[in-house]
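Assemble and predict.
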Amino acid sequence: QIQLVQSGPEVKKPGASVNVSCKASGYTFTSYGVSWIRQAPGQGPEWVGWISAETGNTNFAQKFQGRVTMTTDTSTSTAYMELRSLTSDDTALYYCARAARNFWSDYFIYWGQGTLVTVSS
Amino acid sequence: EIVLTQSPATLSLSPGERVTLSCWASQHVSSRWLAWYQQKPGQPPRLLIYGASSRATGIPDRFSGSGSGTDFTLTISRLEPEDFAVYYCQQYGTSPTFGPGTKVDLK
């Protein structure tokens, strides 16, 4: 079955960077992209961006441009997201997700379990 | 960016009742590219509906979606105990955005 397994919780100080990983299994990794979506406590989800596992092309939500990097390692079927210059507003549960199609804007069928990122001084 | 608004924020209902949840978009959502998700505490969102009205795999037929343009609706024909959760709409016609959610809780 298709699974997305994410790395563990992180606690960071303001101004720091965080790296979250997402290991995919159960499908051909390079046939789909991976989206990153975050959810702050008590709020709706927020799309951060997408990376093509085949080409490495990326597409980010405008508010994260310049502050986020997404990469993949096809040898291990793992996607990575780095978010820099963290503030308390970045405290959220970060999910990786796989869409129905290999396209940057789509609906999401498969989700990771989420990685809690807490930003606190 | 297309902003999604959901109403109401909370609905208090009893099992067996019919539920109608609304989602409005600030701009036309092309090709009815709108999805609905259900989320329970401690879990990621679960896809219910895509393309405004197509049920995802394994979703019971008591869930149905409708609408086009800027107005969309999720209907649960008869509320089951496992349906008490938060429901989100999401558009994917442009850069994906989600609504703030409607919580359906037990009266």
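The mean pLDDT of chain B is 96.
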